[in-house]
Design goal:
Blueprint (H helix, E strand, L loop, with lengths): L1 H14 L10 E4 L10 E4 L18 E5 L7 E2 L12 E3 L7 E2 L11 E3 L21 E3 L21 E3 L28 E3 L21 E3 L17 E3 L21 E3 L7 E2 L12 E3 L8 E2 L19 E3 L13 H4 L4 E3 L5 E2 L22 E3 L19 H28 L4 H11 L7 H13 L1
Parallel strand pairs: 2-3, 3-5, 4-6, 5-7, 7-8, 8-9, 9-10, 10-11, 11-12, 12-13, 13-15, 14-16, 15-17, 17-18, 19-20
Antiparallel strand pairs: 1-2
Helix pairs in contact: 4-5
The protein binds 2-acetamido-2-deoxy-beta-D-glucopyranose (2 copies).
Protein name: LRRCT domain-containing protein
InterPro entries: Cys-rich_flank_reg_C (IPR000483), Leu-rich_rpt (IPR001611), Leu-rich_rpt_typical-subtyp (IPR003591), LRR_dom_sf (IPR032675), SLRP (IPR050333)
Pfam families: LRR_8
Length: about 450
């Protein structure tokens, strides 16, 4: 009898082995203030591909479960995916091709990361019970059409990452926010669609996204700036073949705080382009390989005299093709807490020396170097004494003037030497030389006048 009971207890124990007893898993209580996260964190990365099929159980109160990098191919119902306390589930970097309906018994789940898998569809019932889900990451999967993602009914979803799925072509015909079924809800606050092969953003694309504040649409094939939702606080347009940007593209974006314009095909930053962005705090224009002109009026005229008007805090122009920057910008740029001008082919002449008055951190002066003039090539701007920042053109002009004066004096001296009356033989030589030519008839006449006087 006793043996029986012991055996039963043993079986029961085996059945309810906690995941925390596994050697490959780590459980700990994160010490965070946030009350939402007062539970255990379970980390089971690099454990095994069959971890969902085993009988492990979660601790009673668990907040975060990390099952990433386990080579899991199929998500199925499992004791590990049955919890009323789990808030975050990480399944990224597995080899998931299928998620079975009813796999997720996680009514409190807010964050789900399925990035880096092999998913090309998700059945519409899969997320049925995840009514509290706020964050969903499906980046780096194999989706080719948005309609196979099926998460419209996730009514609390506000942060979605769909990067590097080839869904751009399918977006021509479907609106991302189409309420008829598969689209995103209009509660979306943050959307990342980087690297999805999007060629154009259709008109009214964001018309139903009333509350969107972050849009990352970098690394696509967009050549024209589209109608930007005015609610945006953070916009990333980097790595697109955009040739021109104009003030009209960025008017009325009164909430925009951060704008990222790296690696575009723009040649210039024109007048007034950033003038109507009252909330802008961070602007990056890095790696713009065609950018040669940065207008002194890019931020408008007022900021040139009144630094109080200039609200930007961080600006990076790193790795572009700028050779000069107007000294008029000294006042606003002097206000920045962070400025990076490195990696541009600066022309270190008298028009650039003002840059040395800027207060820049050591990290942002290391690669702030001269390209021209040739003798200063690769010199660090902040190590170079001001006296070297000279203006070649003025210098050359002076040299040319000296040469011209000397030459003139020389000619006059020669004329005096050769043509004074006492030296008529010399002038006779001139006469012989120019005599036969009708074009120079004046000279022989003058010469013959001399001869007449002689007679
Ligand atoms: C990118 O867009 C241009 C037109 O804007 C088009 O000609 C080209 O084929 C597109 N490239 C790809 C890879 O879709
Ligand atoms: C850059 O500005 C200069 C004068 O300010 C102008 O002559 C030149 O055409 C501009 N280049 C580009 C590419 O806009």
């Amino acid at each position: 009898m006793l043996v029986h009971i012991l055996l039963l207890a043993l079986i029961a124990q085996v059945k309810t082995t906690s995941i925390c007893d596994r050697k490959l898993c780590v459980c700990w209580v994160k010490n965070v203030q946030n009350e939402d996260y007062q539970g255990e964190n379970v980390q089971c990365s690099y454990a095994d591909a069959d971890i969902l099929q085993s009988n492990y159980e979660l601790p009673d109160i668990v907040n975060s479960l990390d099952l990433s990098s386990n080579k899991i191919e199929k998500v199925q119902s499992s004791a590990l995916l049955d919890s009323t306390t789990l808030i975050e589930l990480l399944l990224h970097d597995n080899a998931i091709t299928t998620i079975e309906i009813n796999s997720f018994q996680l009514p409190e789940l807010k964050r789900l990361d399925l990035s880096g898998n092999l998913l090309d569809h998700i059945h519409r019932e899969v997320f049925r019970d995840l009514t509290k889900l706020e964050y969903l990451n499906l980046a780096n999967n194999r989706f080719t059409t948005f309609t196979k993602m099926n998460f419209h009914h996730l009514s609390n979803l506000n942060d979605v990452i769909l990067d590097n799925n080839n869904i751009g072509p399918s977006l021509k015909g479907t609106n991302l926010f189409d309420r008829s079924g598969s689209g995103l809800t209009n509660k979306i606050k943050s959307l990342s669609i980087s690297g999805i092969n999007l060629n154009t953003v259709p008109d009214n694309f964001f018309v139903d996204a009333y509350d969107i504040s972050t849009l990352i649409i970098s690394n696509n094939n967009i050549s024209d700036v589209f109608e930007i939702p005015f609610t945006l606080k953070h916009l990333d347009l980097s790595d697109n073949p955009i040739r021109d940007i104009s003030g009209e593209d960025f008017t009325d974006l009164i909430a925009l705080q951060e704008l990222n314009l790296d690696n575009l095909l723009i040649k210039e930053v024109p007048d007034y382009i950033f003038e109507h962005l009252p909330s802008l705090r961070k602007l990056t224009l890095e790696r713009n390989n065609n950018l040669v002109n940065f207008s002194k009026l890019a931020f408008g005229r007022d900021v040139l005299d009144d630094p109080a008007e200039f609200k930007l805090e961080r600006l990076s122009l790193k790795g572009s093709r700028l050779t000069r920057l107007d000294e008029a910008l000294a006042v606003p740029l002097g206000e920045l807490t962070e400025l990076d001008l490195q990696g541009n082919p600066w022309k270190c002449d008298c028009n650039f020396v003002w840059v040395k008055t800027l207060q820049l951190s050591d990290q942002s002066t290391q690669h702030l170097r001269c390209d021209k003039p040739t003798p200063l090539f690769n010199a660090k701007v902040f190590d170079l004494h001001e006296k070297y920042f000279t203006c070649e053109i003025r210098h050359r002009g002076f040299e040319i003037a000296i040469v011209v004066i000397c030459a003139t004096l020389g000619i006059v001296a020669m004329w005096v030497f050769l043509c004074l009356p006492t030296r008529k033989t010399g002038c006779g030589f001139l006469k012989n030389m120019y005599g036969p030519s009708t074009a120079y008839s004046v000279l022989p006449m003058a010469a013959s006048f001399h001869n007449d006087v002689e007679r």
